[in-house]
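Archive entry. Fields below.
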Amino acid sequence: GESVGLHLPTLSVQEGDNSIINCAYSNSASDYFIWYKQESGKGPQFIIDIRSNMDKRQGQRVTVLLNKTVKHLSLQIAATQPGDSAVYFCAEIFNTGNQFYFGTGTSLTVIP
Amino acid sequence: EAEVAQSPRYKITEKSQAVAFWCDPISGHATLYWYRQILGQGPELLVQFQDESVVDDSQLPKDRFSAERLKGVDSTLKIQPAELGDSAMYLCASSLDPVSGNTIYFGEGSWLTVV
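PREDICTED_STRUCTURE:
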């Protein structure tokens, strides 16, 4: 399944499928990006980050892709599990002014 | 694993009363943030500290909100008087140096309900 980030705040996928969550960031000067997972009633939990001099970074079951040309960030989750159900936020950091902003978030629901 | 500690976890207060939240960042983290998160929305920055100095408080409603980090370690966020619209989760986060790409870690948040 695939989301369209801020314009499609919910995403439902079957357990075992791959998930793609998208994010359009706002500032071309942003040079550091973080994906967070937030479960109900808890604080955001760091998943993976990427700097602007990279276009791809992989973690355990997760991959972040960065396309600076169109200011687009995506999070790919392989073999999605029920425990992946949460809201996912992308965050961008502007080097100048040390500013850190979150997107609206995408709610991922994994169907067993 | 080091964590950002916040208290209280839950707080119910009557409108017009004062309320305070405390945050202890990860040891050694110079940058500390306070965010407010309304249910169903992303976190919004209220104030950012670098050591004991305020870096950004442009979104802090200064008529009723105040924040301090006197010794550059732990921090307190105060609301006085509380209003119904202040009901939200207040999140604290910290980082060694986000500009250099050091990760920003969040606490579990403090839920505020104003009645």
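CURATOR_NOTE: The radius of gyration of chain B is 13 Å.
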